[in-house]
Structure formats: C-alpha cells, structure tokens
Amino acid sequence: MVEQVSSLKTGVKYKDAPIGRIPVDWEVVELADICDEIYRYPTYYNLNYVDQKHGVPEIRGELIKENGELSNDLSQYRYISRETSSKFPRTIVREGDFVISVRGTLGKIGYVSDQLEHANITANLMRISPSRKRVYPLWLKQYLLSKFFQNRLNEMSSATTIKTIKAPELKAVEVALPLYSEQKKIAEILTTVDEAIEKTTEIIEKTKEVKKGLMQKLLTRGIGRTKFKKTKIGEIPEEWRVLKGTDLAVKITKGSSPKWQGYEYQDDGMLFITSENVRDGFLDVSNPKFLPIEFHNRLRASQLQKGDILINIVGASIGRACVFKGEYKDVNINQAVCLFRAKEGIEPIFILNYLQLPKTIHRLLETRAGSARQNLSLADINHFPFLLAPLPEQKRITAILSALDQQIEKESNHKARLELLKKGLMQVLLTGKIRVTV
Questions:
Q1: Both 157 and 258 in a single domain?
Q2: DSSP assignment string, 75-112
Q3: Residue ranges of the chain whose pLDDT lies below 70
C-alpha cells in the first residue's frame, strides 16, 4: 500500500468542466456513454421460486454490502427458474456488471463477481453494465461508491414518498473519466485499501465469535466449577446467586428529555447521551450532542459516574448496553437510557457481559410491556433476575473477556483509520486533484 500511495503526483494542469475543474487529459462523459446497458424492468409479482440446483440466483438489495460487494453466501439467495429468468434477458448480469438500488434505499452498489454470472435482479435494482473497452470495472465501482456520486443520486431522486431513480436520469449523470491506464492504477490503490479493511473486519468478527463462545461458557458454567444447582433461570454454579436488579444496584434511574425541560442542543457544554450513543458494549460519541451545564445540574440523579452501566430501554435498540468508562466530564442521559449503578464489590463489566448474553437479552425483552412501541420500565430492570458470581471469579471472568474487548477495540480503531484513508484517497484520486504515475 505504501508503494502505491508513493506513486501519487501533483503539479497537474487542469481545465474547467461542467462538473468542476478536472485534469486537462480527462474527459466529461455521461454514464450512458461508457456503459453497454443501464436497465431496470418494471415490478413483477407472483414469482415461483425453485431450489438452488435448478434455479438462477435472484439478487436483492439486502444482499448488497456497504463495501460495494454482493454476498458470496449463495444460501442467502432465492432462486427463480431459468425459464422465468429468460423472460428478462436485459437484467441478467455478467461478471464486472453492477447492480444499484434505485427505489427506497438509494445508491447501494453491488459488484457482480464471477460467482454470480448469469444471476438476475429484483425490480428495486438496476443493472449497470460498463463498456469494458472504455471503463475498468473496478474503477467504476469506486466512482459509484464515492460521496459525490451518491450526493448526485440524492439530488435527482424524485420527491415522492418512496425515493426513486429512473434509468434516463441515471444515464445522464456526468462522469469525469481518466485514461484507461489511470483508471486501473486508481482502482488498484483503492482496492488495496479495501482489502486491508476487509481483512481487519474479518479479524474483528472472528474475535467477536471467540468472545461470544467464551461468554456463553464462562457466564453460565464459571471457571473450574463442578457443582451446579437449578434456579428459575436455569442451571448455574452452586456458589453463584440469582439477584434482582435492586439487590445489585445502588441506583437505577433514567434521564429526561431536554425538550420537556425547555432546553435545546448547542455546540458545547454538557455531553448528552441518547440511545443512539449506547452501542453493543461501547459508548459511541462520534456525533456528540451538548446541552447547557444548567441542564446537567438540574438533573443530578442521572449524572453519570465511571462504571455506570447504560441500558437502552426504548425503541429498536432496546436491550443494548455499555459501561461508561469516565472518559468525559459532565455527562447526562435522556429518557430512553437507564442508568444502572452497581454496588461496591460488583464488577460492572461482569454485569454488562451478562446482559449481552442472547438468553439474557431474550428474558429482558420478555418483560417489556406489550405496547406498539417497545419499552422497558425501570420496574422491569429493578425486578429482573441477574446472575452473580463471587467477586474473585467476577474479576477473573472480566479479565479474560476484557482482553478480547481490547483486541476488538484495537482492530476497530485500525479499521476506522483505514476507512478515513480510503475516504481521503477517493476524494483526491477520483477527481484528479492528485494524479497517479502510470
């Protein structure tokens, strides 16, 4: 990757074009000029599906990954008959084609590999088949994923309840086209970064799977335990206990809505945590919200301290939890987040790991009120049965699982740096602000 990045050069002459300044030897073309096919069939209904052996894969929008690839797990696909597929020849894809979501969720790009040669697409997708003589497919992939192309899609989408892109509009999108040799070099650089991101993602996912397996074992069977007892939540080590939330916590409360209190967000001040910030095992403040310190001082009960457990109790992310590590001062929460402050002698990370077990989450969600909107009350948390090991064993289990958390965090930070690098390279390479040496 270092050698490729070192091949970048500056000192290039530019010219004015309808889409901005571009290198003098680049040209501006419409997407249709560099494609053999840009096509979408109208919606069809009542398809009969067949088994994989006798059918043709049907590509759906949910099988398009964020990195511009299609799922390579063929068991995730539905299969239409070859006879049905043959009725729609212009949407049969080949290697090097793209599918793009053009209705509802716009702009998801999927590159067609050799594994999906001759597959067909659903009506919410459009087929883009680049001219192989003029366009290097992997360069076009990066262009279609770029922020400027995605912004253009949003601008042209019809102002209806369900956003839609029509084929004539997509065909007319203007593209800054480098020489073919330069396309290949740009694609090579960006693909190398993509591969590094993908490898890092695989490490993260594998580490998460290892942690998941260890959690299941350690948080239900303990360390070196041979004697067990039956309880209302299943068989547990003999020296472990089942305790209600109120037995474990010195405080179980929730925050308040700034709107109810007459406050609005501002550029700085008190960090305000919502359910969006509470992720699965970590606090995400990449898009922070701030309120006046006055709000924080008024709501002392929900002021955060290091070691507080945060649990989402409202909405789609219900049950998601993390521990506040104390890295920020003056922090408060809204009404969708429960603050669970454990008593002295209880490891907060142990409680967090227990909350993350699938069986625990399932039991937790069973306690919610049967309303249209998903909710957990503070009473639900107060009376929820938690599993607790003796303190020395809590610490040993926490240490084992925290080591894996640190590895996940390290790789996640590396991935974030790679993604930032990729974003910057796309911005300069795909616009010609920096050229590559061919």
A1: no
A2: GGSEEEEHHHHHT-GGG---TT-EEEE-BSS---EEE-
A3: 1-12, 42-45, 158-161, 367-373
Q: What is the pTM of this model?
A: 0.81
* Tens digits of residue pLDDT in 13-55: 889 998 889 999 999 999 999 999 999 886 666 778 999 999 9
246 and 357 assigned to the same domain: yes
One domain, residues 278 and 360:
yes
Domain CATH code at residue 185:
1.10.287.1120
Of 172, 267, 195, the residue nearest 418 (C-alpha): 195
Residue 364 confidence (pLDDT): 83
* Sheet strands (E) in 88-203: 98-101, 109-111, 120-121, 125-130, 174-177
**Partner residues linked to 20 by β-bridges:** 17
pLDDT of residue 2: 45
pLDDT digits (tens, 9 = 90+) for 228-239: 999 999 999 999
Domain that holds residue 214: 1-12+179-224+391-438
Q: In what order do the strands lie in the sheet with 290-291?
A: 290-291, 270-273, 331-333
Number of structural domains the chain divides into: 3
CATH number at residue 120: 3.90.220.20
Q: Distance between CA 351 and CA 272 in Å, rounded?
A: 23
Nearest to 368 by CA among 385, 352, 380: 380
For residue 357, give the nearest of 252, 257, 220, 259 by alpha carbon. 220
